[in-house]
TrEMBL record:
Protein name: Ferredoxin-NADP reductase
Organism: Haloplanus vescus
Domain (FAD-binding FR-type) ranges: 1-98
Molecular function GO terms recorded: oxidoreductase activity
Name of one Pfam family that matches: FAD_binding_6
């Protein structure tokens, strides 16, 4: 495990914070990959996986943490302050965006983190980017607004069927899916039905 320092923390949605961490020496990751976070909470060792929500990890990196009051590690992370330290390991995961090609990201809940990170990386490289979020009040609203101003497409849906036309028009874009198990399964079903060829998905497990 590697110890790293919290450089900033910001509330970005309902029971959701963005935790910015100093990038450890030799750490190299792309948006879509994830890290293991380990901490001792009330005398018990807790671990959790969190996907990067920053467009890169050059000097700092960010994870988006959704928490509930009765949780353990996530509420503990939400209470960190700049200067605190946390232990991480990684990066892990084969789902990653390296800045090549157009990207469509379909997400729910904390999946909005990697969605904005990938979209920001894509627009920075002059590629088309689309974020499809299942829900009415996504975290990272300010970053989504900035993405729209930069030419990206942001689509809020109440049903994944509403994303069918967007997915059908994917063309050469890679489709990324981030969310809990049932959401990922349903998104794959819609994508398969409209003929998406290039899809990468990361499931956060059962909700």
């Amino acid at each position: 495990m590697t110890q790293t320092t919290v450089t900033a923390i910001e509330e970005v949605g309902t029971r959701t914070v963005a935790l910015e961490l100093e990038t450890p020496e030799g750490f190299d990751a792309d948006p879509g990959q994830f890290v293991l976070v380990r901490a001792t909470v009330d005398g018990v060792e807790e671990t959790g996986y969190y996907t990067l929500s920053s467009p890169d990890a050059e000097e700092t990196m960010e994870i988006t943490v959704e928490y509930v009051p009765e949780g353990t590690l996530a509420p503990w992370l939400a209470e960190r302050e700049p200067g605190d330290t946390v232990e991480i390991e990684g990066p892990f995961g084969d789902v990653q965006y390296t800045g090549d090609g157009d990207a469509i990201v379909v997400a729910e809940g904390p999946g909005i983190g990697p969605a904005v990170g990938i979209a920001e990386r894509a627009t920075r490289a002059d590629h088309d980017a689309t974020v499809v979020f299942w829900g009415e009040e996504p975290p990272h609203r300010d970053r989504l607004d900035a993405l729209e101003s930069a030419g990206a497409t942001v689509l809020l849906v109440s049903s994944l069927d509403e994303a069918a036309d967007t997915l059908a028009a994917a063309g050469d874009a890679t489709v990324y899916v981030f969310g809990f198990e049932s959401f990922v399964r349903d998104a794959k079903t819609v994508a398969d039905a409209v003929g998406v060829d290039d899809l990468q998905a990361e499931s956060f497990g059962p909700r």
